[in-house]
Amino acid sequence: MIIKTLPVGPIMANCFVVGCKETLEAAVIDPGDEADKILGAVAQSDLIVKFIINTHGHFDHVSGNKGIHAATNAPILIHALDAPMLEQISASAASWGLSAENSPSPDRTLDDGDTITFGKIAFKVIHTPGHTPGGISLFTEGHVFVGDTLFAGSIGRTDFPGGDFATLKSSIQDKLFMLGDDVRVYTGHGPETTIGHEKQHNPFVGVNAMY
Prior knowledge:
Layout: E1 2-8, E2 13-19, E3 25-29, H1 35-44, E4 48-53, H2 59-62, H3 65-72, E5 76-79, H4 89-94, E6 108-110, E7 115-118, E8 121-127, E9 136-140, E10 143-147, E11 150-151, E12 154-155, H5 165-174, E13 184-187, E14 193-194, H6 195-201
Parallel strand pairs: 3-4, 4-5, 5-6, 10-13
Antiparallel strand pairs: 1-2, 2-3, 7-8, 8-9, 9-10, 11-12, 13-14
């Protein structure tokens, strides 16, 4: 499996290009900005983008949808509960003093338990609300892409509209922590981590959580 991590935009959100080595089919996860940079990474490995997947609807993870979609015609996928946020990207970015274009409407909405297949890779969709109502994580053997649900040593903010700490904690402890200690966690901001490390050391949701 090919995994490229691309921090993009002024908030440095991680976009992931995930490709199948055998077929070169790929998915772009969370194209938050800098569509040209993302497309350059795709072209560098001769990948064919089959899906654009948003782990949630915040502008710093979806502002590149329009550019990637225009260049590849790949369908945009997002959980149904966060789909309305794609029409509010410009206004959301403006509240941070930034500019961004609204996304095209999603081509498909996702739900817990769905499967997204490209090449020989299959992502299982895990609904992990708490940061947003429609937040999802994408699991494939040994790897999980979690958006802003979980970070190395931290968790996603819950003070935005639709956020809820108790819900987020349950998503992490009851769903993500069940995946296995060796699973690598690819986060929406910052470095990678592992499920096992966060179980042991995360101060918000680990075994010695202070909250």
